[in-house]
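Justification of resources, computational component.

The compute hours requested in this renewal are based largely on the per-chain cost of generating structure records like the one below. Each record pairs the submitted sequence with a full structure-token output. That output is archived, and it is also reused by downstream analysis tasks.
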Amino acid sequence: MLMMKERRPAIRTVEGWARSVLLEAGAIHQCEEHGWMKDHADPHAHERARCIARDEPAFGLMPDESVAAIDEMLASIGDTCPECPPG
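The structure output for this chain reads:
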């Protein structure tokens, strides 16, 4: 029986690729009200995203460069939505 692996959608930028990997790994999620990405602050999900980046790097990047892209994206995302009221 022929088995097909589900392919990720084509992403046009490294940032878009990193965001999709972080979402897939459960490391980030979207604010339901405003749409901003928020960090789950889950070290296991962060490591899952790094493993995906090492095993399936972005097109044209080496595994280390893909992991660096994941880390850069994580550094740019906070754990709160800038538009939600504090509390």
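Residues 63-76 form the longest helix (14 residues). Residues 14-76 form one domain.
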